[in-house]
Amino acid sequence: MNAPRVPSFTPDDASMKADPYVSFARLREDDPIHRSDLGYWVVSRHEDVRSVLMNREDFGQGDFVENIRLFYGPDFDVMGQRGYKWLSEVFLMQDPPHHTRVRGLVTGALTAKRVRAMEPRIREITDRLIDDFAADGQGDLIARFAYELPVRVMCDMLGIDPEDDRLGAVINAIAQSFIVFEARALTDAELATANSEIAVLQRFFETLFDDRKASPKDDLATALVQAGGAEDALSHDELVTVAIGLFGAGFETTAHMIGNGLLSFSRFPGEWQRLVDDPEALAAGTVDEVLRYESSLVATYRTALRPALVRGQAIAKGEKILTLIGAGNRDPRVFDDPDRFDIGRDAARHLSFGGGIHFCAGAELARLEGRVAFERLATRLPGLRVDTDAPAWRDGFLFRGMSSLPARW
């Protein structure tokens, strides 16, 4: 095995939060198939990240328990932790055939037609949110807009009352429990919190699906209940697991996309002016460029299902690979001047929705929400600027976003 040519990759290194792209570039250019001291491989070039994500024969999720024990040691009781047990049942973390069945039922309920039909409603929600703060002239756009928009859209789709007094606890539980996705050992306090907050989410969505089974409605929750036939329908536990995943991913990564985009625009004010000058024409391309330049999902991992080669390096069955999506998205072999934010470029080859059988099931909804959000903000708040001095990046590595974003307009 070749010795690493750069310092070992460590996701919780302090420098990663402020600016991971310096380390990403070093890996991508000097050690593109890198062996971390943490026991897994790291790939960072666009070609390699994409090839691993698309290769369903050689790479998948593998043995969930062993994957988690990589971080904690061989005696760690993975399935005794409520947060990890929930994660093990999310179809994103599974391989065929179970993944195929559950994903098929979910995408059958979350159809492109259903998503497209949401556009007028998403525009209405977006404008109402802007109405609520436009006259203030300043505010925190993470709390007032970036989180509120996707939360209200997901509530609308699932048939959840956005004024439900339990919703604040649900949103907080998503933020506290989704840390189980991180590719590292959690502290005792983090894990205890994740376990307790997953329980909050499970109770909330168990009640929702009990209601929909008793009283069907024209919403996504009912569509999920009715997905499939008598033999392959989602079980009650599967419904709850899917709903938590959809709700969480549906607002967490979309909120980060909006916030990261607004930060990027303020760092490249000429690009904001371009969008203000022609929002309808440039809003769709803006979404792809935001996802490329400052992705909400920085990395994801796979396990070798059998012996494989990546860039000539032998990967043994069972070994884990972290694919650095954020590094691949700034690969100069694919994108000219990749460290420049340019909403006019063709950024469609970004990797932020993953690939292969695990391509993001909510990608079309995320694109729609982002397009409407950037178009309406540019139209209604053309003087918008955010504070770029010290962004409040949230803890964690895999998901990149801010906890607050002070702005003026």
Care to give the gist of this entry?
With 409 residues, the chain is of the alpha+beta class. It has helices at residues 14-18, 21-30, 46-54, 64-72, 82-89, 98-109, 112-116, 119-133, 141-146, 148-158, 167-177, 188-214, 220-225, 236-267, 269-277, 279-293, 325-328, 363-380, and strands at 33-35, 41-43, 59-60, 138-140, 299-304, 308-310, 313-315, 320-324, 385-386, 406-408.
Can you tell me about this structure?
The chain is α+β, with helices and mostly antiparallel strands. The chain contains 18 helices and ten strands. Strand 6 and strand 7 (313-315) form a beta hairpin.
What would the keywords be for this entry?
three-stranded antiparallel β-sheet, 409 residues, 52% helix, five-stranded mixed β-sheet, globular, alpha+beta
Topology, pairings included?
Elements: H1 14-18, H2 21-30, E1 33-35, E2 41-43, H3 46-54, E3 59-60, H4 64-72, H5 82-89, H6 98-109, H7 112-116, H8 119-133, E4 138-140, H9 141-146, H10 148-158, H11 167-177, H12 188-214, H13 220-225, H14 236-267, H15 269-277, H16 279-293, E5 299-304, E6 308-310, E7 313-315, E8 320-324, H17 325-328, H18 363-380, E9 385-386, E10 406-408
Parallel strand pairs: 2-8
Antiparallel strand pairs: 1-2, 3-5, 4-10, 5-8, 6-7, 9-10
Helix pairs in contact: 5-12, 8-10, 8-18, 10-14, 11-12, 12-14, 14-15, 14-16, 14-18, 15-16, 15-18, 16-18
